[in-house]
Amino acid sequence: MDAPVVRLDLPARPEGVGVVRQALVGVADGLALDGTVLSDAKMAVTEACTNAVVHAYEPGHDGRLEVDMFADDAALTVVVRDAGIGMQPREDGQDTHAPTAALGLGLPLIAALSDEFEVRGGPGDGTEVSMAFNYERAADPAAENPITGGPGPSGRWTLDEPDPAG
Amino acid sequence: MDARTIALDARHGDVLLVVIRGEHDIYTAPKLRDQLDEALGQRPVGLVADLSGSTFLDSSILGALLEARRQALESGVNFVVNLGEEPEAGVQRILEITGLVPVFPVVRSAGEALESARAAPADA
User: What pLDDT digit, counting tens, does each position of A112-165 carry?
Assistant: First the structure.
């Protein structure tokens, strides 16, 4: 892939998420991105950055949030990277650093709002979320990757079990 | 850039409104939680989360609204979200694709929101 049109490197703090969104809007200004796709991109990129801010680093340790934006003829690709400890669940099944406030809807939203996405990384390697947004869509990704389930009693989102027949 | 504000509107008698304008995400979610907690602490008959002036909100904000809804249900306070008649497309989209429109529930005008917030709770 060519060099990014924008590369951001900022502290992984809550106030940085809006800065990334503003940069995304600026990049989209120069592209043939329609309003719905831009709106979906803002949401998906926000969720990826939020995951990095909330999950990636031990409390009290300031890590970095890196964002690359690439534009080609067909799509805008945004890569959100952190050098944190990863989002893997602990052996006892508890999510490592999710505060009780976290809803757990980030990845389902990214899947529903991007035309392609990939999550890479492992424990200790950091996490990288890559999302592509097509200028012209053949279908609504939210119809292809619908969000199932609803708010559970614990306050976290509970996804429906996949249909074994489907 | 839109001003990001969260304000309590107590001009509607026994119904309180928390009015959320502009862009909101993980940065302002703690302020929204505090404002919703404060409103619920006043034990109103109903609580309206007014999103009609919201231009962006993410899952952190949905989490804050769902927590307020849970607390409201527990304490017998009617809870309703007002999206307004001309909502921002992205705000409407996150509510629709998450299936939360019937859950909150979501209404489309201030009048409907007040009426719904004043109605007797379904289990009363």
Answer: 999 999 999 877 778 999 999 999 999 999 999 999 999 988 778 998 876 666
CA distance A65 to A80: 7
DSSP reduced 3-state for B90: helix
Give the integer Cα–Cα distance in Å for A43 and A37: 10
Long-range CB pairs of A70-74 (<8 Å, 24+ gap) are A70/A1, A70/A2, A70/A4, A70/A5, A71/A5, A71/A27, A71/A30, A71/A31, A72/A1, A72/A2, A74/A134, A74/A135, A74/A136
Whole-number pLDDT of residue A156: 86
Task: Let me know: does B63 contact B98? Beta carbons within 8 Å.
Answer: no
Chain B: give the shortest CA distance to residue A158, in Å.
12
Angle separating helix axes A35-55 and A14-29, nearest 10 degrees: 150
Q: Looking at this predicted complex, what is its ipTM?
A: 0.93
Using CB atoms, pick whichever of A35, A46, A142 lies closest to residue B58.
A46
Q: Is residue B107 a contact partner of residue B82, using CB atoms and an 8 Å limit?
A: yes
Check: CB of residue A101 under 8 Å from CB of residue B33: yes
Sort out which chain A residues have CB atoms less than 8 A from B26's CB and list them. 14, 17, 50, 53-54
Tell me whether residue B120 is exposed, middle or buried, using C-beta atoms within 10 angstroms of its C-beta: 0 to 12, 13 to 18, 19 or more.
Answer: exposed
Strands B106-107 and B78-82: parallel
- Higher per-residue confidence, A71 vs A62: A71
B24 reaches A (C-beta below 8 A): no
Q: What are phi and psi of A123, to 5 degrees?
A: -55, 125
List the single residue in B with minimal CA-CA distance to A101. B63
